[in-house]
């Protein structure tokens, strides 16, 4: 029967009825578009990166990141409450370290009572339902602005890891839920995992900045945390990845998976969606993308000029991460996006 049907000669299309398959039918109504949507965006998809500074004075605006502030610990607690109420699962915390505490060896990074650790402890106490992620990297703490310790202009890999371990242990002791090594030293995931486990922090998760590129899109962030002037005209190409490379990102991820990473991250975001997609396809584990400061600044600058519709591009860009395969996005737009989705 089936065979006979398929061997029938093709029927000529009656005039006026071409084409038979009309993709636009499913798009014709809002209910229908919702019914066939392949992805849904929600507040659970967002991680909010936040900046915290010393002092009781008020929060300060960051010029290149309209809508984003350097918070004091009390104002950060208010923000965390708002994020939690909106259903945002976690914050990623970045300290703004006073210049006088920066040094060549980044000792401040592992001081038990440093700003980052105090903020973690205060947040955990005040808003226990929100997850906390801390960057593990030395750039906020070094006087040269690099992510590692430097000797004769060279960033030392293994010596840096010794310091990163102490930093991660301090964060774990303060109560952080996830440590996120963003330094790109070789072998740090395994050594941090072992050190956490040996110290009784088996429950602390590792989100690895596994594929982190040497990108020009970090500019506003470096200004926000004050590592830009320290770094000067230096760049991070001897440890962060070359934007030309994709296969190399898979090798980076494979190593971090083997060393015990619980979650992988790709950074920056939109220009690297091909990497997000490949990493998700290859490893089938939680993959996050970081829509970085420069991406945020581009959208805000164009919107401020009336060249883009802010609300549309914010939600569209976040949806694109999900379509590419990301399980979540670190985004400075987390609060506004969650509010837009609610309204
Ligand atoms: C530091 C770090 C950077 C960012 C997150 N962690 C900057 C850098 O690598 O120079 C950038 C985030 C952003 O641009 O939003 N290790």
TrEMBL record:
<comment type="similarity">
    <text>Belongs to the ALAD family.</text>
</comment>
<keyword id="KW-0456">Lyase</keyword>
<protein>
    <recommendedName>
        <fullName>Delta-aminolevulinic acid dehydratase</fullName>
        <ecNumber>4.2.1.24</ecNumber>
    </recommendedName>
</protein>
<dbReference type="InterPro" id="IPR001731">
    <property type="entry name" value="ALAD"/>
</dbReference>
<keyword id="KW-0350">Heme biosynthesis</keyword>
<dbReference type="InterPro" id="IPR013785">
    <property type="entry name" value="Aldolase_TIM"/>
</dbReference>
<comment type="pathway">
    <text>Porphyrin-containing compound metabolism; protoporphyrin-IX biosynthesis; coproporphyrinogen-III from 5-aminolevulinate: step 1/4.</text>
</comment>
<dbReference type="GO" id="GO:0004655">
    <property type="term" value="F:porphobilinogen synthase activity"/>
</dbReference>
<comment type="subunit">
    <text>Homooctamer.</text>
</comment>
<dbReference type="Pfam" id="PF00490">
    <property type="entry name" value="ALAD"/>
</dbReference>
<dbReference type="InterPro" id="IPR030656">
    <property type="entry name" value="ALAD_AS"/>
</dbReference>
<keyword id="KW-0627">Porphyrin biosynthesis</keyword>
């Amino acid at each position: 029967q089936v065979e006979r049907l398929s061997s029938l000669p093709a029927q000529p299309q009656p005039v006026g009825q071409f084409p038979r398959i009309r993709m636009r039918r499913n798009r014709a109504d809002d209910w229908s578009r919702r019914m066939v949507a392949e992805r849904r965006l929600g507040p659970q998809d967002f991680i909010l990166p936040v900046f915290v500074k010393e002092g009781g004075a008020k929060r300060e605006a960051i010029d290149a990141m309209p809508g984003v502030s350097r918070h004091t610990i009390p104002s950060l607690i208010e923000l965390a409450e708002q994020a939690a109420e909106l259903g945002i699962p976690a914050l990623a915390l970045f300290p703004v370290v006073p210049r006088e505490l920066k040094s060549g060896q980044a000792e401040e990074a592992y001081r038990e009572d440093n700003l980052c650790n105090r903020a973690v402890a205060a947040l955990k106490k005040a808003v226990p339902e929100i997850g906390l992620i801390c960057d593990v990297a030395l750039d906020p703490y070094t006087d040269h602005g690099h992510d590692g310790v430097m000797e004769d202009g060279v960033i030392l890999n293994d010596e840096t890891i010794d310091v990163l371990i102490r930093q991660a242990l301090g964060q774990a002791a303060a109560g952080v839920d996830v440590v996120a090594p963003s330094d790109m030293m070789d072998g740090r995931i395994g050594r941090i995992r072992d050190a956490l486990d040996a110290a009784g922090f088996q429950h602390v998760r590792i989100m690895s900045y596994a594929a982190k590129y040497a990108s020009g899109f970090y500019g506003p962030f470096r200004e926000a945390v004050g590592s830009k002037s320290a770094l000067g005209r230096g760049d991070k190409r001897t440890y962060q990845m070359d934007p030309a490379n994709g296969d190399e990102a898979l090798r980076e991820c494979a190593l971090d998976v083997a060393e015990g990473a619980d979650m992988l991250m790709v950074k920056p975001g939109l220009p690297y969606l091909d990497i997000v997609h490949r990493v998700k396809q290859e490893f089938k584990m939680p993959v996050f993308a970081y829509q970085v400061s420069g991406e945020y600044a581009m959208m805000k600058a164009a919107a401020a000029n009336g060249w883009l519709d802010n609300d549309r591009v914010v939600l569209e860009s976040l949806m694109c991460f999900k379509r590419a395969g990301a399980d979540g996005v670190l985004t400075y737009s987390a609060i506004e996006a969650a509010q837009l989705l609610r309204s």
